[in-house]
Amino acid sequence: MADTRAEASKLQAKAQPSYNPTAFQQSALPSEPSERSELYLNLDCIDEAAAEAAYQYCRQSTKVGSKTFYMGSLLLPYHKRRAMWAVYNFCRVTDDMVDNARDVELEQLQARLRDWEDQLQRSFEGQVQSHLPHMVAWTHAVHRFKIPPTPPLELIAGVRMDLDKVRYQNFEELRLYCYRVASTVGLMASEVIGYSDPCALDYAVNLGIAMQLTNILRDVGEDLRNGRIYLPLEEMEQFEYSEAELLRGEINPRFIRLMQFQIDRARHYYSLAMPGIEYLDKDCRLSITVAARLYSRILDMIERNGYDVFTRRAFVPKGQKLQGLAKAWVGRSLRRVPKP
Measured between alpha carbons, how far is residue 145 from residues 17, 139, 142, 239, 257 in Å? Predict the structure, then answer.
């Protein structure tokens, strides 16, 4: 009987999928939509060893894709940490479907997004394409932490906006975009982190908006080269800074005042978000504090660069990241912020 069990275990181990990160491109998806059900396995067929291999793929991808996000994740308990890697990879792949496909026809991109939505829906049904490690990890995390389907579907809707919307008339339009592409990430992450009161989700929405506004201000030049302007046109007009000047990359007093206004608004959203950290599970508060503070420092670097977002990319040096980590740790250790 013992020999039989041993042989069965060997056969089961051989049957488990093996993931080789070097053999898989992060944004790999079927080149054309496919309805072939044989591509999918039930999540029950993926054991813990296979799931862990998928999470490790996501870890490597996260480490390369976002050093700030990865540093913050290391402060989480391991079971939450690896789920955050899966969430990051799902969001990154979704974003890359548009950002890294500039030579793909619009109709084909729309078809791919529909196919991606189908994969997402199947993940909530416990079905996964076993050759895609990021989807194995994502599906495993979804069912362990009960991530609801609405935020990731809204994320795809936000990415779809980039297919046909290249200007934003006012902040109301931009805020919707920020909610879809960034606040939804915070809502998914909140389910992994855990919270004591549903009001924590409102704070997560504000933190997502703050971070996306930071991205927009950092990437003004890069977005221009891709034909997109996220700075609200009404506000550019308010500060008498023209689109023609923006396209020329002119840094003048009017542009500086416009940027100061945008930076102040981003900082305001950070200030709205930070009190919500006290509603998160205690074992995750430091991680989110560090991530928020480090990301907000990008705004400081924009100012330090003289508001040159056309030829210089604002980033937080590693030394300052470590300093920020130490300050956040000391701050949370020595004081307790009362709940609002």
Answer: 23, 10, 6, 46, 44
Beta pairing partners, 22? none
CA of residue 266 relative to chain centroid, distance = 17
Distance CA 46, CA 200 (A): 33
Q: Length of the chain in residues, anyone? A: 340
Task: Assess contact for 240 and 254: CB atoms under 8 A.
Answer: yes
* Residue 128, token pair as written in the block: 């996964």
Side-chain half-sphere of 31: how many Cα atoms within 13 Å?
A: 1
Give the burial class of 180: count Cβ atoms within 10 A of its Cβ; 0-12 exposed, 13-18 middle, 19 or more buried: buried
Please, which residues have CB within 8 angstroms of residue 183's CB and are 6 or more apart in sequence? 204, 205, 206, 207, 208, 209, 212
Q: What pTM was computed for the model?
A: 0.83
Look at the block and give the residue holding tokens 């102040």: 264
Two tokens, residue 32: 């054309």
Task: Measure the CA angle with vertex 190, ends 189 and 192; round to 5°.
Answer: 65
H or E element that contains 147: none
What is residue 42's three-state secondary structure?
strand
pLDDT in tens, 101-135: 777 888 999 999 999 999 999 999 999 888 899 99
40-91 pLDDT per residue, tens = 778 888 889 999 999 999 999 999 998 888 988 999 999 999 999 999 999 9
